[in-house]
Amino acid sequence: MLTLTSPVETWAHRRPAGLKLATLAVATTGLFLLGSPVPLAAALAATAGLYLTGGGRFAQTGLRQLVPLWPFVLIVGAWHLWTGDVTGGVAILLRMVTAVALANFVTMTTRLSDMLAVFERLARPLAPILPPRRLALAFALVIRFIPVMLERMGQIRQSWSARSQRAARWRVMVPATLAALDDADRVAEALRARGGAD
Fold first, then answer.
1. Are 70 and 93 in contact (CB under 8 A)?
2. pLDDT at residue 122 tops 50
3. Helix 70-83 vs helix 132-163: angle between axes, to the nearest 10 degrees?
4. What's the helix, strand, coil split of the chain in %, to 5?
């Protein structure tokens, strides 16, 4: 749970965490400046090419991490079809998938300790108010937990589908919440075993 770094070594693993996080911030901002599906599709294709530079196994792992997005894709797509704004819907979906894929790429190629060091440096001006290491740890864990929770939601939906023909909808919220609390408890235990956040 504390690390989602891919065991498949790629060129991106050897790049500084700060550079990757800064590039991710710039790239994500750029995605929101693009309004047409054509350049957004090109950005998604470039992101796919980025994954392929790590090899087939690495790219397959990255693709699997995008599978839990399908409920959001379905909802957003259905809404824009209903409202008649197909172009806008396609742009939103391309932007969402590309942004998540880029974030996953950084997560898969960056150790938690390296992310923690970057966030800790950025949080130093807040030292009189909040210990930088605690704030950095919170940021790093949020980044780590997003793909984990998306995958867990997908697993819960699959389990529901295997046991019932009714749509899961809101019924997955309780088990998802309990799973999140359980994961948080396990992470807290792991952190205490490693000396805490101080």
1. no
2. yes
3. 80
4. 80, 0, 20
* Cα–Cα distance measured from residue 144 to residue 100, given in angstroms and rounded to the nearest whole number: 12
The pLDDT assigned to 83 comes to 86
Farthest-apart Cα atoms in the chain, separation: 55
Q: What percent of the chain has pLDDT over 70?
A: 85
The identity of residue 11, as a single letter, is W
Torsional sign, CA 190, 193, 194, 196: positive
Report the Cα–Cα distance between both ends of the chain, in Å, rounded. 20
Mean pLDDT of the chain: 81
Count of other CB atoms within 10 angstroms of residue 107: 23
Answer yes or no: is pLDDT of 118 > 80.
yes
Residue-wise pLDDT tens digits, 43-58: 999 999 999 999 989 9
Contact 54, 15 (CB under 8 A): no
**150 CB neighbour count, 10 Å cutoff:** 19
Q: Computed over its alpha carbons, how large is the radius of gyration of the chain?
A: 19
The domain limits of the chain are: 11-193
Q: Report the pLDDT averaged over residues 113-131.
A: 79
Please say if the pLDDT value at position 2 is more than 80: no
Question: What is the residue type of 88?
Answer: G
Contact assessment for residue 51 and residue 138, using Cβ atoms and an 8 Å cutoff: no
Side chain identity at residue 62, one-letter code? G
